[in-house]
């Protein structure tokens, strides 16, 4: 085939191809120092210990729905760090530092895909900004959590992450299950947006075993990746299908499904999304219920997820932005977040004390 013939069939809907630095180049520019490396490993070990009941604390994955302004996320991390230290006997606090947003249809896809927030899609800049912020947050001693959405991005940032999620919209995808099987940290599998829990259980089983699939290596070269399987995946209940699924009966039902599938009986409850009907004012109501279950000795609840930022609510992109307010889902403001964390710490302390007695 001549080159013009190839060009008539190839890349017919690609309007531009822009070079992107390799993961190795970005790591060289923004390295994970030996000290930060130990902090990441320690954060992952603590999450694993909570999930495997070697540590009686409650895992709390908390932070903005998405990062759109690294300065505001950094300020939030400073505040959260104080709470993480203060409540460390009872809670293992991990900050949501979410850069990739899966959309139901279309919308802003997060800071990695669109760091200028205007659809220009400077992914190289997005990866650089994301890695820099993750390193800064790890440098404050806070473990970080992200959703892994694109199968290429983990090579650029996953070394900074202590807990990862496969989201409700991708939990049925083989690509994401394969990815989870090779990721180095515990991964939460969310129930599907229609509420299906069995799909997340299938994902846990699929990610637990080795897979072979094409991807890129650290140098950015196409490679066939052979994974070992991830033993630290777990269910995340986020509500769905128009119904919440955080009640004591829902939790018991999910634990039964896990038992039937011969999987560890542990789960995380996302107090936002389908469990709050995306109303940030409902998150504390969900927390009240979940804290009650924990205090009553429900050991199947390993953790909770909260969406929280400096300012309550949400705003649309496009106009003058309010500092510290979410541009995706509505978040609790800072003060209610502190109150909710205290409530969860008390519940966790009570569960630990009564288990010992
Ligand atoms: O967490 C954020 C959103 O719930 C998710 O990205 C889907 O958002 P959308 O339904 O507004 O697209
Ligand atoms: C998109 C998210 O959640 P879900 O996949 O549950 O909708 C999220 O946690 O940001």
Describe the structure.
- It is built from eleven helices and ten strands.
- It is of the alpha/beta class and about 350 residues long.
- It has a single domain (about 20-355), classed as TIM Barrel, CATH 3.20.20.
- The protein is globular and about 80 Å long.
- The site of erythose-4-phosphate has 9 residues, from loops.
Characterize this entry briefly.
The protein is an alpha/beta fold. The protein contains eleven helices and ten strands. The strands form two sheets. An eight-stranded parallel barrel has the order 1-2-3-4-5-8-9-10, surrounded by eight helices. It has a two-stranded antiparallel ribbon with strand order 6-7.
Q: Which distinct ligands sit in these coordinates?
A: erythose-4-phosphate, phosphoenolpyruvate
What's the CATH class, please? Alpha Beta
How many H/I helices?
Answer: 11
Q: Distance between termini?
A: 78 Å
Q: Would you identify the CATH architecture?
A: Alpha-Beta Barrel
- Radius of gyration over all CA atoms, rounded: 20 Å
General shape: globular
**Share in β-strands:** 5-15%
Q: How many strands in all?
A: 10
Number of domains: 1
Side-by-side strand order of the widest sheet: 1-2-3-4-5-8-9-10
Q: Which class do the helix and strand fractions yield?
A: alpha/beta
Organism: Paractinoplanes rishiriensis
InterPro entries: Aldolase_TIM (IPR013785), DAHP1/KDSA (IPR006218), DAHP_synth_1 (IPR006219)
Protein name: Phospho-2-dehydro-3-deoxyheptonate aldolase
EC number: 2.5.1.54
């Amino acid at each position: 085939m001549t080159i013009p013939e190839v060009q008539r069939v190839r890349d017919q809907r690609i309007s531009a191809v822009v070079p992107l630095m390799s993961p190795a180049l970005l790591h060289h520019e923004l390295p994970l120092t030996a000290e930060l490396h130990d902090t990441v490993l320690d954060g992952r070990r603590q999450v694993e210990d909570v999930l495997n009941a070697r540590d009686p604390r409650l895992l709390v994955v908390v932070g903005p729905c998405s990062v759109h302004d690294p300065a505001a996320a950094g300020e939030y991390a400073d505040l959260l760090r104080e709470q993480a230290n203060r409540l460390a006997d009872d809670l293992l606090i991990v900050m949501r530092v979410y850069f990739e947003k899966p959309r139901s249809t279309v919308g802003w896809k997060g800071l990695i895909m669109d760091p200028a927030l205007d659809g220009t899609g400077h992914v190289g800049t997005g990866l650089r900004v994301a890695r820099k912020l993750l390193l800064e947050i790890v440098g404050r001693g806070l473990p970080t959590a992200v959703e892994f959405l694109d199968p290429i991005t983990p090579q650029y940032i996953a070394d900074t992450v202590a807990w990862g999620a496969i989201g409700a919209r991708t939990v049925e995808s083989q690509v994401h299950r394969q990815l989870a099987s090779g990721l180095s940290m515990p991964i939460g599998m969310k129930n599907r947006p229609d509420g299906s829990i069995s799909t997340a259980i299938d994902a846990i089983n699929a990610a637990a075993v080795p897979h072979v699939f094409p991807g890129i290596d650290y140098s950015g070269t196409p490679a066939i990746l052979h994974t070992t399987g991830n033993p630290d995946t777990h269910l995340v209940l986020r509500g769905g299908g128009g119904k919440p699924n955080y009640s004591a009966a829902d939790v018991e039902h999910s634990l039964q499904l896990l038992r039937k599938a011969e999987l560890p009986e542990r789960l995380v409850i996302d107090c936002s999304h389908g469990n709050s009907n995306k109303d940030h004012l409902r998150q504390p109501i969900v927390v009240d219920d979940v804290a009650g279950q924990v205090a009553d000795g429900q050991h199947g609840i390993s953790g909770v997820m909260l969406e929280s930022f400096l300012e309550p609510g949400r705003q649309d992109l496009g106009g003058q932005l309010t500092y510290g307010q979410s541009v995706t889902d509505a978040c609790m403001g800072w003060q209610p977040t502190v109150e909710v964390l205290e409530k969860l710490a008390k519940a966790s302390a009570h569960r630990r004390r009564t288990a010992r007695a």
